[in-house]
Each structure stands twice: as structure tokens, then as C-alpha cells.
Amino acid sequence: MDSRDRLVFALDVPDGHAALRLVRLLAGEVGTFKVGLELFCAEGPALVREVSQRGGAVFLDLKLHDIPATVGRAVSRALAGGGVRWLTVHTGGGRQMLEAAVREAGTGAGILGVTVLTSLNEAGAVEAGLSPPLGNLVVRRAALAVDCGCAGVVASPQEAGAIRRVVGPGPLIVTPGIRPPGAAAGDQQRTSTPAEAIAAGADVVVVGRPIRDASDPVAAARGIRSAIEEALGGAV
Ligand code: C5P
């Protein structure tokens, strides 16, 4: 996996026009573009096809969470047009739901399990009926996702090390909440630099605003790739 494949750019823009402009601009530096709920609700599967036709693979971040039969059918429909590299489901749906997602994806895309939303703090988790500490729940759900055949998990860089120790070297750990040194944190609470995330065991970093809002997005993406390559000691 080279550094272009290790960098996902989050297409956090309101419509397909803005998204495709960024795909055209960044496809040389970024291998995969994340389409989240906002953009998918606005533009649907047609946008996934258009991104892939412009040379980018799609990380479809839908965080599916429903009964196994419904999730299985949704996975099948979401992947029908091709072009999706990874699709997220929520590990809170449990074993049968995760297995249904993996079964329906087949070789069409890797299923990534979302463990616990990083927007949830300990107090919010307790209020929602989850047992603290959250770190234990994250690791436990990551292990479940891998046991069910998921290609990997999405987690905060702070959780990457603990997850890696439990799941071993094979599964992918994909980390958002990335800020290059000196970049504005925005609403992210606990950030790591690209180098810190890779050193902690992440395989892939998801970056949105530090690239989107840069005066030169291509240079920003290139800088992140260099940091990834340095953190891997040139072994890319
Ligand atoms: O702009 P920024 O780099 O913060 O964007 C990060 C992207 O990763 C956003 O699309 C955000 O929704 C997503 N994400 C996240 N934290 C999670 C899961 C997804 O920041 N736990």
C-alpha cells in the first residue's frame, strides 16, 4: 500500500458539483474519497460512480445499523454500481448484522466496523446505557468486527494502538481526527498528526478540512503523504 492509498480525503461538501471538483483536483495525490451520509443523501449512488470514473475509489461511510436482513440488502444495493473500496457498518448492530454485511459485500468491497462514535464521551455513553470505560468497548467491538470477517475498523488514532494489540497485524485500522502539525482542530476533540496515527498502528488516515480548506489543497495532501512515508520509514 503506497501513501496515496493510505490517504482518504473526506468529501464533506454539500453537492456533487463541489465534490467532483475536489476529486479532479486531488486524484493524483489521494487514492480514496470518503462519501458520507450528507453527500450520499443528496446525490446517491450516481455520485459514487462518478467519483470512481474520475480515478478515485470510494469509502462509503454510511455507518449502517439495522436488522441483519435490512443491512445485508442495503450493502448489496450500495455496492451494485461498483467503485466502492470500503463501506462502514456500525458494530453496535452485533454479530449477525456484521456477518450479513460481510456476506453480501463478498469480494465487492471491504466492510469496516465503526466501534463507538468519537463524538460520544464517557458521560454521554453512560447516559446511553453503555458501560465505561469506553476504551474497553472500542477494543471489544473491534475484535468482534474482525471475528465477523470485517476488513477492519474505523477508530480514533488514540485507540489504534490498543486495537492493533488485540486484532493483530492483518485488519485495517482507519483513523479520522487527523491534523497535520499547526492545523486548526475545528470541532475534533482529540486529534493526532498523520505521523502519530501511523506510528500508533493506523494503516489509513481520513483527512477533511486540513486539505479542503488549505490555500493549496494539493500541496496539503502531498505534505500529509510525505509525513506518512516518513512515519513508515520509507517502507511504502
Ligand atoms: O475535517 P476532518 O478532517 O475533521 O474530517 C474528518 C472526517 O471523518 C469527517 O467526514 C468526519 O465525519 C469523519 N469521522 C470523524 N470521526 C469519526 C468518524 C468519522 O471525524 N469517528
Describe this structure in words.
With 236 residues, the protein is of the alpha/beta class. It has one domain (7-231): Aldolase class I (TIM Barrel, Alpha-Beta Barrel). Helices cover 45% and strands 17% of the residues. The protein contains eleven helices and eight strands. The chain has helices at 16-26, 37-43, 45-53, 68-79, 95-105, 122-127, 134-147, 157-167, 194-199, 209-212, 217-231, and strands spanning 7-10, 32-36, 57-64, 84-90, 110-114, 152-154, 172-175, 204-207. Strands 1-2-3-4-5-6-7-8 form an eight-stranded parallel barrel, surrounded by seven helices. Helix 9 (194-199) links the parallel strand 7 (172-175) and strand 8. Helix 4 packs parallel to helix 5 and helix 7 crosses helix 8. The model has no long low-confidence stretch (mean pLDDT 94). Cytidine-5'-monophosphate (C5P) binds at residues 10, 12, 34, 36, 117-118, 154, 176-177, 186, 188, 206-210.
SSE inventory with pairings:
Layout lengths: L6 E4 L5 H11 L5 E5 H7 L1 H9 L3 E8 L3 H12 L4 E7 L4 H11 L4 E5 L7 H6 L6 H14 L4 E3 L2 H11 L4 E4 L18 H6 L4 E4 L1 H4 L4 H15 L5
Parallel strand pairs: 1-2, 1-8, 2-3, 3-4, 4-5, 5-6, 6-7, 7-8
Helix pairs in contact: 4-5, 7-8
The protein binds cytidine-5'-monophosphate.
Properties at a glance:
TIM Barrel, alpha/beta, single chain, 236 residues
What percent of the residues sit in helical stretches (DSSP H or I)? 40-55%
Radius of gyration: 17 Å
**Which ligands occur here?**
cytidine-5'-monophosphate
Label the CATH architecture: Alpha-Beta Barrel
- Specify the overall morphology: globular
Number of domains: 1
Q: What is the β-strand count?
A: 8
Q: Return the CATH class.
A: Alpha Beta
Across the major sheet, the strand order is 1-2-3-4-5-6-7-8
Distance between the termini: 7 Å
Contiguous low-pLDDT stretches (5 residues minimum) are none
Order of secondary-structure elements: EHEHHEHEHEHHEHEHEHH
Strand fraction equals: 15-25%
